[in-house]
Amino acid sequence: xxxxxxxxxxxxxxxxxxxxxxxxxxxxxxxxxxxxxxxxxxxxxxxxxxxxxxxxxxxxxxxxxxxxxxxxxxxxxxxxxxxxxxxxxxxxxxxxxxxxxxxxxxxxxxxxxxxxxxxxxxxxxxxxxxxxxxxxxxxxxxxxxxxxxxxxxxx
Length: 155
Hints:
The protein contains 4 helices and 5 strands, in the order αβααββαββ. The chain has helices at residues 3-20, 64-79, 84-88, 117-128; strands spanning 41-43, 93-101, 107-113, 136-138, 141-153. The protein is α+β, with helices and mostly antiparallel strands.
């Protein structure tokens, strides 16, 4: 199995295992209320219609979240570059990346938390390169959506 496939499988395992953990230092998940303000941020699981990653437009609604996660994982693998300085110094670990997909479908407010700035910078670069998406919707209106993903750096 080549390195890219192995990394992708490892990444998807990390993504799935992250979904099983209790949120730790992440902000509380907001409760969906009847009158959602236009500038409020919802989490990915609270939406009537999640953001649609390019290439997932024709996916059945029930499978769009899975398609989003798959395409996001493929994006990370495609753009992943282990920082040379981190590699040379045996720096590794998991970086949690939080970001918002705005009402226009663009990524904004990227925040990274990890064991070293070199790894955080690479995780930021990867997520900053995400393509414009179809925004998530609540009650038929585009809304901001919070999303978090772990990116694991292993030598």
